[in-house]
Amino acid sequence: MKASESSDAHFQEPPKPLGSRVRRGSSEGEVNIKAKGQEVIMANGCPGLAAVVQQEEEKPPENTTKMENPAQQEGSPHDLQISLYVKAGSDGESIGNCPFSQRLFMILWLKGVIFNVTTVDLKRKPADLQDLAPGTNPPFMTFNGEVLVDVNKIEEFLEERLAPPRYLLSLHLPLPFKRFFQINPGTFFKFPKLAAKHPESNTAGIDVFAKFSAYIKNPRKEAKEGLEKALLKSLKRLDEYLQMPLAEEIDANSVDDPGVSTRSFLDGPDLTLADCNLLPKLHIIKIVARKYRGFEIPAEMTGVWRYLNNAYKREEFMNTCPAEREIEFAYLDVAKKIK
């Protein structure tokens, strides 16, 4: 069932994701990721300091890119060795469709650490990766030599280990700036806390992907309407939460109706762990349901559309997102034809 009103007025065409531009480099084995003129401004980096995306040697058939935050330079007391392994796309090189891979990719990006990203072709997984995490498919990661394979546990681990306050005292800065940061270290850099402040944000949209999966995999015509209604009901609950103002948006001294929330994300103006979990799934729903069922998220769900459009403005989401064609390709055989 399509929305009675077109959602085009609410949808802003997202920019081309970085995932579509991850590619195998030259014959010398370089991998290039280009964003904002070969620079990536990390969300929690210091104003005016860019994080340069470095080129790194590739060991076929892996595709590895080093992501660096400006606050993590040589000499940092928090020089961490972090490698994230994500599912490769249909070409075996670009970022593939996997909401769990994107979830961890977003978390590391938001934390602002230096980390390597390797796309793993599941059809020809190299022996060294099989030895590293035997029987495990991406995503998984290594943290200072420790192999981590469970997505939920990795999220908890990163939130605990990369937590405030973590200060950086040695930088290649003029002496007056060095002295200032040594006296006031907390003013310069700390790993951000990404946990949501409101518990309800962690459960918002909790069943929407399961409802979508049942809907898209269903081949029976008589079941289509019921499954579509279940998906719409789940999306409606998410929309209601996104439109309901949070406590901090309400003026306790005002007698007026607080109105509709204007926040950008689930828990407020900033991306949290809850968003890293939900946004990749919601993006898949929008693309796949439109492609294979002609289903549009209803235009009247303005909270959901505001949420998606704000995500499309954030490089932490777009630069970790697979290309739209990869998402569609991943569901080519999953989306059953209605009989």
Structural features, described:
This protein is of the alpha+beta class and 339 residues long. The protein folds into two domains: 18-187, Glutaredoxin (3-Layer(aba) Sandwich); 199-330, Glutathione S-transferase Yfyf (Class Pi), Chain A, domain 2 (Up-down Bundle). 35% of the residues lie in helices and 9% in strands. It has helices at residues 99-111, 127-132, 151-161, 175-183, 199-203, 208-217, 221-243, 273-293, 302-311, 315-318, 324-330; strands at 23-24, 31-32, 39-40, 51-52, 63-67, 82-87, 115-120, 140-143, 146-148. A five-stranded mixed sheet has the order 5-7-6-8-9. β6, α1 and β7 (115-120) form a beta-alpha-beta unit. The longest helix is centred in the last third of the chain and has 23 residues, at 221-243. Residues 1-6, 18-61, 69-77, 167-173 and 180-188 have low confidence and may be disordered.
Question: Any low-confidence stretches, pLDDT <50, length ≥5?
Answer: 1-6, 18-61, 69-77, 167-173, 180-188
CATH homologous superfamily classification of the largest domain: Glutaredoxin
Number of domains: 2
Range of strand content: 5-15%
Average pLDDT rating: 78
In CATH, the topology of the largest domain is named Glutaredoxin
Distance between the termini: 16 Å
**What is the number of helices?**
11
- Please give the largest β-sheet: 5 strands, mixed
CATH class of the largest domain: Alpha Beta
Structural class: alpha+beta
